[in-house]
Write a structure and sequence with these properties.
Blueprint lengths: L1 H60 L15 E3 L6 E5 L8 E5 L10 H11 L11
Antiparallel strand pairs: 1-2, 2-3
C-alpha cells in the first residue's frame, strides 16, 4: 500500500512539473515572439524613415543647380540621380558646348560610393566614349 501511495504521489509530482514546464515553455515562446514582433516593427519604421530621407534627398538634389554657389549654369545641368547626380554640358545653354562635366553632390562628411569612385577614375583616365543607338 505504501508503494502505491508513493507511486501515486510521484506521478502527481511528475505531472505537476510537466505542466509547469509546458507553462514556462509557453511563456518563454510568447516573450520571444513579442520581442521579435517588436523588433520587426522597429526595423520597418526605421526602413520607412530611411526611405523617406532618401526620397527627400533625391528630390532636393534636383534643385541644387539653382543654388547661388553652384559653380555651373543651371540650364546646362541634367540630373541623372544615380550613380552620378548631374551631367553638366558646359556652354550648352549659350549654344557653344565646350566640355562635359560629371558632378556628384555630397554634403557634410559623406563620401563617394565605391561605384562613384570607379566612375571618377574612368573619367580621369578619359575612358569615356560616344555611342549612338538608332531604331
Amino acid at each position: 500500500m505504501f508503494w502505491i501511495i508513493l507511486s501515486f504521489l510521484l506521478l502527481i509530482f511528475l505531472a505537476y512539473f510537466v505542466i509547469k514546464n509546458l507553462e514556462w515553455k509557453f511563456k518563454f515562446e510568447q516573450k520571444v515572439k513579442e520581442a521579435i514582433e517588436k523588433r520587426e516593427e522597429e526595423i520597418k519604421e526605421e526602413a520607412i524613415k530611411r526611405s523617406a530621407r532618401v526620397l527627400a534627398g533625391k528630390t532636393l538634389e534636383k534643385f541644387i543647380p539653382f543654388l547661388k554657389n553652384f559653380p555651373h549654369n543651371p540650364q546646362d545641368a541634367r540630373w541623372l540621380g544615380d550613380p552620378i547626380d548631374f551631367v553638366i554640358f558646359d556652354g550648352l545653354s549659350s549654344g557653344e558646348p565646350s566640355k562635359i562635366i560629371f558632378c556628384e553632390v555630397k554634403s557634410g562628411e559623406s563620401k563617394l560610393t565605391k561605384q562613384q569612385e570607379k566612375i571618377r577614375e574612368l573619367v580621369k583616365k578619359k575612358r569615356v566614349e560616344w555611342s549612338e543607338f538608332r531604331l
